[in-house]
Amino acid sequence: MGNMEEIEYPKGVKWTRQRKNVYRVLQTAKEPLSAVQVYRLAEKLAEGEEYALSTVYRILAAFEEKGLVSKAAWMGDGAVAYELNRGGHTHYAVCLECHKRIALQSCPFAHVSLEQETGEFTVTGHKLELYGYCKDCKKEKGNTKSEKDGNCNGT
User: What is the pTM of this model?
Assistant: First the structure.
């Protein structure tokens, strides 16, 4: 596992082998992952070392406490997803049907002065999730929608 040593781990955390594996999983993830997804990927990195899902939850909680990860609950399935804090932030459009997460290319608030909008409240960060249907699910819904509409109208 020569690659593990190439990663620069943040200071202020006791870096056990399991924590390093969880950190590596989050660092290489292309989208937020559930704890179960992190668990499965970390076990693959562990090369035979057994993990407990509860250990992964504790590691993620410790990372969140240190500000290394952020989590969000996705509407629809209620699952919590974890993402490494990389200094910036990403907003997502989440499909209500297949739960695919599509990263938005820019922040919709980039040109808004939130300080003026919120009056006496100092904004230190924000999260935004858009909900709807990806193009594949929309196509499928479109095909069945006309059938359902006919039934709803009593025809």
Answer: 0.60
